Amino acid sequence: MLVTHLSQPASPAPEATTTDEPTPAPTSVPPLEAKDVLAAAERFPWAVAAPGTRHWPDGSDFLDVALSAVGDEERAGYIEHLEAFVEEDRDRLEELLRAYGPGSRLASHGRYALVGQPETLVILERMETAPFLLRGRWEEKLETVFLDDLEFAWGPRHRLSR
Question: CA dist 44 to 2, 17, 25, 133, Å?
């Protein structure tokens, strides 16, 4: 076998590449713009409190943390996924807003400050879709009491708080 291998012609040399041609960039993940996600969440007025009654005029910290729990493979169709989540859980979201949102008896204690924020729709969707990743990212950046209270009010499939 060695003689046969040695008697075979040498393989052709690979073609030399020219440095004039740029190498194609790897396919990048499309950006998921917070403003676009927030605009999508605000299209569901029955799921969020009126702007004047919200606890935070700017909930961007909460939104940023929730969006950091959206995987690269989910980013391209995330807004459509969020819209489907909100439509599927409409009754549950309406009840959450009614029971825990601004103006409710329970909200008067200040424990459910996130309920009614448009950013909360993203948090709830992530709580259902990627609960462990959301909890990990949240613990790195924000006080967990807000997430714990929202988790209690929402009643997700997986309880992550202690």
Answer: 74, 55, 38, 26
